[in-house]
Amino acid sequence: MLKIHSKLPAQGVTIFSQMTAMAQRLNALNLSQGFPDFAPPQALVEALSHATLHGSNQYAAGDGLLSLRQQVAQQFLQRDQLQIDPIHEITITPGATIALFSAIQAIVHAGDEVIVFDPSYDSYAPSIALVGAKAVHIPLMAPHFHVDWNRVANAINAKTRMIIVNTPHNPTGAIWSKQDWQQLIQLIQNRNIVVLSDEVYEHLVYDGQQHYSALSFPELRERCFVVGSFGKTFHVTGWKTGYCVATPELMRVFRQVYQFANFCGVTPVQVALAQYMQEYPEHIQQLARFYQQKRDLFNASLAASRFTLTPSQGTYFQSLDYRAIRPDLNDVDMCHFLAEQHGIVAIPISVFYQQPSEDLKLIRFCFAKTEQTLTQATQILSAV
Ligand code: GLN
């Protein structure tokens, strides 16, 4: 008899797969999983088609197509005045998820501790568990989901090997200020701790605020991995292409792992992204305004509803508080209620917690949708 010992015995199917499947089953409006319902830029799709038709169909360099790495370096130069060496400090990966996974595999050993802030993106804790390390979950403080720095100070000990930061933050839309980063620097500067900074929503920051990358702080430059995703930036989540940036020393151990986790990213996708980024630099410059309009439309259309909200500062997610509508339901049941009774699907926030509070009556909606979808969604929600 074969004995199977799962390494993640309590792990079910991700909430994103579950909710998208439910939306399909019920033929409901899907504002759960984070992906746009509109087409990517025509020139980008054409560049992909051109790349496949003209021979870019075999393995790419393991570290990524150099011209795409150069485009990533160019972004950091323009935005943060940072010199990043595309050869030794940038790796293109098939999505941000494998970059996060590889960075954890590369740095964290069995018995180490990794601090994560709850609600935390669902891939972090399983990736930590798979190396035999312990995730130390620190809840962010509602309603603005700021960090309680005293709790972080108390959680750090000799076993702490990594702290995972996510700004702009999925699912809450909170962003880290310069002061947040300075607090973190103070707490870790004389310790052997690496920062893994998940910045996949780096270009989606609203109300004139600024995204601070971990890389922009000289004190963190030597001890951070920054992970990004072209999927969010170019409306192509299904192209699963991301990147990782770190010093040559950190990148060397990252690549030791990554080359066997995946070896290389998808060639024609990298060719297309590099070409598009070079030809259309305005795409990224206009992105925050593009999504802020969607956030504002979504939020303003809910003004007369019984949901309440704190406007999202970044990402393409908006959380709504439903305690005035169904205080009797927990957020998972509220999502089922909305899907089954009203034909709209959201994501419960509690699934991103190790220990969700009973009082959390929040559900997350993705506003990366056409005006038509957003109008339809807010009409449904206003009638609840
Ligand atoms: N990051 C996306 C979200 O938060 C989903 C990614 C996934 O489906 N794994 O909705």
Helix and strand arrangement:
Blueprint: H1 15-26, E1 29-30, H2 42-53, H3 66-80, H4 86-89, E2 90-93, H5 96-107, E3 113-118, H6 124-130, E4 134-139, H7 149-155, E5 160-166, H8 178-188, E6 194-198, H9 218-221, E7 224-229, H10 230-233, E8 242-245, H11 248-261, H12 267-279, H13 282-300, E9 317-321, H14 331-342, E10 344-345, E11 347-348, E12 362-366, H15 371-382
Parallel strand pairs: 1-10, 3-4, 3-5, 5-6, 6-7
Antiparallel strand pairs: 2-8, 7-8, 9-12, 11-12
Helix pairs in contact: 2-12, 3-12, 5-6, 5-11, 13-15
Bound molecules: glutamine.
Glutamine is lined by residues 14, 16, 33-34, 170.
Structural account:
With 384 residues, the chain is an alpha/beta fold. It has helices spanning 15-26, 42-53, 66-80, 86-89, 96-107, 124-130, 149-155, 178-188, 218-221, 230-233, 248-261, 267-279, 282-300, 331-342, 371-382, and strands spanning 29-30, 90-93, 113-118, 134-139, 160-166, 194-198, 224-229, 242-245, 317-321, 344-345, 347-348, 362-366. It folds into two domains: 15-40 and 283-382, Aspartate Aminotransferase, domain 1 (Alpha-Beta Complex), CATH 3.90.1150; 42-281, Aspartate Aminotransferase, domain 2 (3-Layer(aba) Sandwich). It is built from 15 helices and twelve strands. The strands form three sheets. It has a seven-stranded mixed β-sheet with strand order 2-8-7-6-5-3-4, sandwiched between helices. Strands 9-12-11 form a three-stranded antiparallel β-sheet. β6 (194-198), α9 and β7 (224-229) form a beta-alpha-beta unit. The protein starts with 14 loop residues before the first helix and ends with a helix. The model has no long low-confidence stretch (mean pLDDT 97). Glutamine binds at residues 14, 16, 33-34, 170.
